[in-house]
Each structure stands twice: as C-alpha cells, then as structure tokens.
Amino acid sequence: MSTSLECWYDHTKERLCQPRKIAILGASGAVCPRFYLPALDSIIGQYPNLRFIPVSRDPEQASPRYLAIPMAECGWVSLDAFQKGEVQADAAIIATPTCSHLTLARDYLETQKGLVMIEKPICMPGELGELVHLLNFSRYSTRERIFAADFFMDSPAFKAALGWIYNNTSDSNPIAKITGRLVENWPIEYGREWLTDPDINGGGLGMDVLPHVIALVRTILDKVHIGDSMVVKESFLARYTNDGQPAEGKGETYMWLKASARGIPIIMDGGKGTGDHYYGVTVHYKNGDSIEIFTGMDGSDGCDPYVKLSKRGKALTYVFPGAGVGYGDILRDFISIVYDTENPQAFYSLNERLRAAMTGVQVVANAYAKSDGSLISHSLGTTPKTPQQIASRADSNVQKNMISDLRIV
C-alpha cells in the first residue's frame, strides 16, 4: 500500500468520528425512494455520525414514508426555511425539478460553506452561460464545490470498460462509431408528466434521459484524448400514443440524434414507451472489434451490469452481479468529499463530472435546435423508425409502385 493511501486511511478514520449533516432537497420526489434510499441502505454502516435532513417545498403534504431515509436528522424541513439559512447543513443534494437546480445550488453556495450535489440535467439549457459564469467568476469557490451527479458514470461496468477502451484505442485501430441508448418500455410514470414540460425540465424526455448517454460518450472521448465538441448532425422527436390518446405532458417522449466528434459518428436515442428496455453504450472499432457496456437496470426486472468484448469474431462477457446502476458509488464519492476525506485515487475529478453533465445539456439543446420541432407519432410499446429506416422504406415503396405500374401497363 502506498504511503499516500496509508495516510488517507488514517485521516479517514479520524474524520468519520465527526458529525456531518446532508440536506436532501426534493426528498419527497420520485428519485429519492427509487435510487437514494436503496443506495444509502447499502453504505449506511460506513458513516455512523452522518445525518440527513429531508427538505420539501411543502412539508405538511410530504409523505411520512420518505422519512425512512436512513439516519434522518429530524422531521421535514421546508425549502423556504432552508433557503433562508434557518437550517444549516454541511452539504446538500439537489434532486428537485430541473428548473430549480441552478437557483437552489447558487443559494446554498452563497449562504453555506459545503459541497452541493446536483442531479441531472444539471441546469436548464438557457442557464448554461450563467452556470459557466458561476463556475469561473464566483467568489465562493463554486468550481470546487459542485458535484455533478450522473450515476451511470459510476456503474462498475462503465468504469471497468474505460480502462479497456484506453488500452485498445490507437491510431492504427481508431474508434469508428459509438452508439448509445437509454430506452424504457413503459409509459411515463404517474406524477412525472412534468418531465415532458420544457418550462420545468428544459425539454421533453430527451432532456431527461439522453444527458446520461451523452455523459458516458463524453467520458469515453476524453479517455482517448478526443476533446472535440459533439456536433449534432440530425435529430428527430417522437411521442407515443396509448389507445389512440397522446402521452401526458407537452414535449417528446422519445429523441433520436446523430452527432459527430472528430469525424466519429455518434448515434443515440432515449425515451419511454418504446419497444425495448436498455441502458448502455457500444464502441465500435475500425477493425470490427467492439465493446458493449450495459450499465444495468433498476426495479424488479433489473439486470446486472455487464461488459461484452467482441474481438476477432469471439465474444467474452464480464458480469457484475448485484452491482446496480451506480448510486452507491456516486454517494460514497460525494460523502467522502463532505468528510474532507476525498480518496487520492478517486475515479473522476469534479471537473470531469461537470464537463460530462454540461455537455449532456448542451448536446440535447442542440438536438432540439436541429429538429424541425414536429413530433412523430408512434404506438406505446414500439420504437419510432429512424430517418434512415423511413427513407429506406420510402425508397422501397417507390420501387414497388414502379414495378406495379409497369406490370399494369
């Protein structure tokens, strides 16, 4: 064991004896019980003096079941009281609707001294310039205090795959294409229709799900030293119908886009109500090799993360049993910084997390600008056709009509 790690372990033991409080803003929303509570249950024993403060805009209407948060400090705290500084916390987790992310983060950074973790999307598309200004010019050292959360980056499968990608990408065998998907074969959950409201979420479901995929792609490109921006070439939006009725909400329920970085095609899609259920990315190489990274699923039908290497016609799959989708790891990294015990061998820096999160918002915003704004309709449980598939089908129909006409004549 290196001397630096030995010192870190000693430092950690001492620090963990001290009390810390973390506020969870938006604790009564859908993200907390679905992701945070199971993750906290898995790591609770490592932090005996850690306490959580559940914060809600309307504490009186918050469900008592959310107080099952491990190590809850007290009952519900109102968001208004927290913003006024009436309740102090060593750190804050912002898991509220997107339109409030930047405001709540800035308020906390300017009134309290701790670290703030922001769920994706990190901000509304129109706020990216304001976020950049906050990072670069604030007197509150905000760049060192913002932890951009994207739990798929912390999937053990993805972390393991990054090393293989780094070691196997070269000038003689470059990346030829990257594909990524985050699709779910169920409709929008009740009470989450706001995810398709551009005024609240910054867009439709494309803004909710595709930043995950883009963060993974951005991290892969950075790993092989391709710092070029992802330029959106084309995109389209779709909205499912159920028994002839359009989905609840305003915006799209599905987005497809094609981008490029240093000439590498990048094709991604994401949404709900599709024909399949998948979370992951695949890197294709010039020589025909590929690496598929399945980041895992949550829920009763959950599947373990895996990495599938296809090399010279042979496939080898590495499975990560019971690893989940990364919330345990991301919370562990966040809490270690809260305790001022940041691991010297931490997988990502705060800047790497910020870059991935901000790129996700920017690329989806560019995809909206690139689309014509119309929504293609498709039935719930089916995946919309890509522009290439639609064009191919149209060409085929033209050829059939020509043949039919010739026969008639």
Which key phrases capture this entry?
Rossmann fold, ten-stranded mixed sheet, single chain, 409 residues, 11 helices, alpha/beta
Strand content: 15-25%
SS class: alpha/beta
Radius of gyration using CA atoms only: 23 Å
Helical stretch tally: 11
CATH topology (fold) name of the largest domain: Dihydrodipicolinate Reductase, domain 2
CATH homologous superfamily identity of the largest domain: Dihydrodipicolinate Reductase, domain 2
Please report the distance between the alpha carbons of the first and last residues.
Answer: 84 Å
Number of strand elements: 16
> Tell me, what is the CATH class of the largest domain?
Alpha Beta
Largest β-sheet summary: 10 strands, mixed
Low-confidence stretches: 394-409
Compute the average pLDDT.
85
Helix and strand layout, with pairings?
Elements: H1 3-15, E1 20-25, H2 31-43, E2 50-56, E3 77-78, H3 79-83, E4 91-94, H4 101-111, E5 115-118, H5 128-137, E6 146-148, H6 156-168, E7 175-184, H7 198-201, H8 205-223, E8 231-242, E9 245-246, E10 254-261, E11 264-272, E12 278-285, E13 290-294, E14 306-311, E15 314-319, H9 327-338, H10 350-370, E16 375-379, H11 387-408
Parallel strand pairs: 1-2, 1-4, 2-3, 4-5, 5-6, 7-11, 8-16
Antiparallel strand pairs: 7-12, 8-9, 8-10, 10-11, 12-13, 13-14, 14-15
Helix pairs in contact: 2-9, 6-8, 8-10
